[in-house]
Amino acid sequence: MGGVLDGVRVLDFGRYIAGPYCATLLAEFGAEVIRVEKRDGSEDRFVAPVGEGGEGALFLQVNRNKKCITLDPMKPEGQEVMRRLVATSDVVVANLPPQTLRAMKLDYESLKAIKPDIILTTATAFGNPGPWSDRVGFDGVGQVMSGAVYMTGKGDPPYRAAVNWVDFGTALHCAFGTLAALIERGKSGRGQIVEGALLATALSFTNATLIEQAVISANRVPSGNLGQTAAPADIYRTRDGWVLCQVTGHPLFIRWARLMGEEDQWLNDPRFADDIKRGDNGPVISERMARWCAERTTQEAVDTLGKSMIPAGPVLSPQQALEHPHIRATGFMQDVDYPGLPNPAPTMRAAVRLSETPGEIVTRPPTLGEHTDRVLADIGYDADAIAALRSNGII
Questions:
Q1: Which of 62, 9, 64, 58 is CA-nearest to residue 31?
Q2: Res 1 pLDDT > 60
Q3: C-alpha distances out from residue 200 to 125, 213, 309, 389, Å
Q4: What pTM was computed for the model?
Q5: Nearest-angstrom CA–CA distance, 66 and 57
Q6: What is the pLDDT of residue 195?
Q7: What superkingdom heads the lineage (predicted)?
Q8: Region of residue 309 (phi > 0: left; psi between -120 and 50: alpha; otherwise: beta)
Q9: What is the DSSP pairing of strand 66-70 with strand 193-197?
Q10: Other CB atoms within 10 Å distance of the CB of residue 295
């Protein structure tokens, strides 16, 4: 593998999404990433199993391009292995609670004593400082505490998103922070801590809503798919499915009114003079859009809206997303084989393209402990020493 991060070695002690996907993004752009797992496999390896060995869909997504070793870092011999690994690495990624980092001697002070310019990239649930800093949490905790879940659905019950946007957003923030820390180290020679938090990510994504509340006390309540600050913005039933249409800004509203063939009705009515007024009167506008969509198939609706340069898209099932001609044509996903899978895994490449130094998926996700012997040999263990570590339950 080559790439802009060629020569950077990353130790990935991450679990689930925020840590592992951060490390994956670094790997996709050339870093050597070594995933360190429990001897019988870490729990995130087996979420939503799809293969004969129990490996899950999430694991396959966020662990391509990595090597994998198994290690018990709580035993003295395991600590020595870890010390040697840290001494040869540039970045340690570990989205683990602070008390767990200290117990594993992965806290920054312990790492810095081994390699003074090390970069430690961490992600916690709630961030520091604060009374909840030592608590643990998953993606959903960030969703519910940010205002996002309160505003989703129609309020009774509130709905969290089915996708882990808080986890993936935290991974993106951590990858960005790690790159910034590497650039700084290149200038000053100093390492540092890069700290993400699920709650911080969730609050950053909902920040505009929080600003509006703090400044003008909008006191918004959930309204399903109906937009509140512009219109038409909703999901509409067609003759054979559903389509989303979002019109924000007066130029788009003019295009929409022309498409409806009713410019005078919509453009001269003071109720629809700007986005916020259109949002306040959204049900009136959405009723007209709903009638327009109901007369057409989903394909007819999205094609007509697309030609009019109005943002729209069909509501797709997972299978339909895999089969959609545009998604297939973009090459966003790459089929990746893995031992024991009945079919290749369509794996998303990094969702950003660099024209001169693009990232790439070079190797499939590793099997459990696939590279243990090779990595240990690289840091000075001979065959007998490796055999002894295995016999003693260290690897």
A1: 9
A2: no
A3: 9, 18, 35, 40
A4: 0.95
A5: 16
A6: 97
A7: Bacteria
A8: left
A9: unpaired
A10: 10
Q: What pLDDT does residue 131 have?
A: 94
Question: Tokens for 48?
Answer: 């939503």
Report yes or no: 139 and 167 within 8 Å, Cβ to Cβ.
Answer: yes
What is the architecture, at CATH level 2, of domain 242-314?
Answer: 2-Layer Sandwich (3.30)
Domain boundaries of the chain, sorted by first residue: 9-205+330-392, 242-314
Here the contacts of 85-88 (C-beta below 8 Å, separation 24 or greater) are: 85/11, 85/34, 85/36, 85/375, 85/379, 86/11, 86/111, 86/114, 86/115, 86/118, 87/114, 87/115, 87/379, 88/9, 88/378, 88/379
348 forms bridges with which residues in the sheet?
333
Q: For 236, phi and psi rounded to 5 degrees?
A: -115, 145
Q: What is the CATH number of domain 9-205+330-392?
A: 3.40.50.10540
Q: Convert the pLDDT of each residue in 103-144 to its tens digit.
A: 999 999 999 999 999 999 999 999 989 999 989 999 999 999
Taking alpha carbons only, the member of 179, 196, 41, 175 closest to residue 127 is 196
Task: Determine how β-strand 9-12 pairs with β-strand 91-94.
Answer: parallel
Q: Chain-centre distance of CA 343, in angstroms?
A: 24
Q: Which two structure tokens, joined as six digits, stand for 256?
A: 């929409």
**CA pair distance 91, 7, nearest whole angstrom:** 12
> Cα–Cα distance between 14 and 190 in angstroms, integer?
23
The widest CA-to-CA distance across the chain, in whole angstroms, is: 85
Helix (H, G, I), strand (E, B) or coil at 190: coil
* Coil, helix or strand at residue 9: strand
